[in-house]
Amino acid sequence: MTAQPFPVSEIVAAQRPHRKDAARNYDALITAAREAFAEHGAEASLEDIARRAGVGIGTLYRNFPTRRHLFESVYAGEVNDLCRVAGQVADREPWEALTSWLHRFVDYTVTKRAIREAMDDESDIFLACRESMYQAGGPLFERAQKAGAARTDLNFDDLLRMVAGITATNFLDDAQRDRVLGVALDGVRTPAV
Amino acid sequence: MTAQPFPVSEIVAAQRPHRKDAARNYDALITAAREAFAEHGAEASLEDIARRAGVGIGTLYRNFPTRRHLFESVYAGEVNDLCRVAGQVADREPWEALTSWLHRFVDYTVTKRAIREAMDDESDIFLACRESMYQAGGPLFERAQKAGAARTDLNFDDLLRMVAGITATNFLDDAQRDRVLGVALDGVRTPAV
DNA sequence: GTTGAAGCGGAGGTCTGCCTCCGTTACAGT
DNA sequence: ACTGTAACGGAGGCAGACCTCCGCTTCAAC
Questions:
Q1: For all residues of chain A together, what is the average pLDDT?
Q2: How far apart are CA B27 and CA B33, in angstroms?
Q3: Which residues cross the membrane (chains A, B) (predicted)?
Q4: Which of B99, B109, B170 best tests the A interface by mutation, with the highest count of A CBs <10 A?
Q5: Nearest nucleotide, C1' to the C-alpha of A66?
Q6: What parts of chain B have a pLDDT lower than 50?
Q7: Is B49 within a domain?
Q8: How many domains does one find in chain A?
Q9: pLDDT (tens digit, 9 = 90+) per residue, A129-156?
């Protein structure tokens, strides 16, 4: 267990309750919510989530006073994971490191359908998520730019939103999503002179 | 008024009722629904749409027995408009024609938030919409490919979904959306040899 | 102008989700 | 083992959306 330098990681750790049964329920709720959000988007029924988790609706509300709290916790968990992945690819070639991280982003993120909304949210947690993503992915992008592999007339926010858009889109299959992401990323590449 | 060769155009024309008051209400409902879908996505409240249109909920249901019927009609109207635009750009340079049509797509479409779902729907009307989009935009793409301006290792469906993804994404402003779309389309361009 | 049919609208029944409240249960510190 | 407290869970009240039904209105054909 290494140190977690990202703002979001503290938030993630601080939420989980101490008592044994409470912690178990908390985990079950996060898991169930991840599934439900993946299937139905951020509007998934909270009572359904509680049912899936095998806990009462009251327990859900005690842990997460609002729908937003719950969604934030799920999303923050995913962002936290992705930030750690960014460290793991740092030793590769600049362009390879960047694109493999972005591919991971679209494949891993299960809250796909709700990402667009999260991009514009100004609450503390979403700000921390974005801040963490910048800290984790920004250096990969800058390194690719400095290496002459990525064009310099767009910024990291542009790139992240482009990838988020592709992430949130339905494709016929994973092969098509990969193909399309590859094409879009080719546009980010510095054109051959 | 020229002939409309697209499958969707017949559908659009056939829906509108004959009687004067009925036609007026129909138009008001389509307009109100366009607004509501733009604001709240495809799950917008039907009672709210009827209120905006200034008609009773019963009138809404008589014209559109289900939410799907209403959404299909709004969407088909937009597709119909876009298909006509495709004819208007056909005299430009191949690459210019294609990209200006696609920019028009992201700017004009007001049902942005619901497009992703429409891409995968198998109902008659959505099939007709997609068929029409292929008839209208496919030739622009093929012409760009034949002219050596667009790469040949992706198909028109790939392209449309990529653009739809960017369309449905929230950006900070229109300039960012345009910038990102431009970058993604650069990826579609044949790389300089 | 008459008249029949097409169209109108909204009251109201139903369903589903949200959220609170409180009697019961299970944990953990002593 | 005991016990205070934190956590549990689901009944139930509330809100809002869906959709039907039917008495009233408006159109347009004659």
A1: 91
A2: 10
A3: none
A4: B170
A5: C19
A6: 1
A7: yes
A8: 1
A9: 999 999 999 999 999 999 999 999 999 9
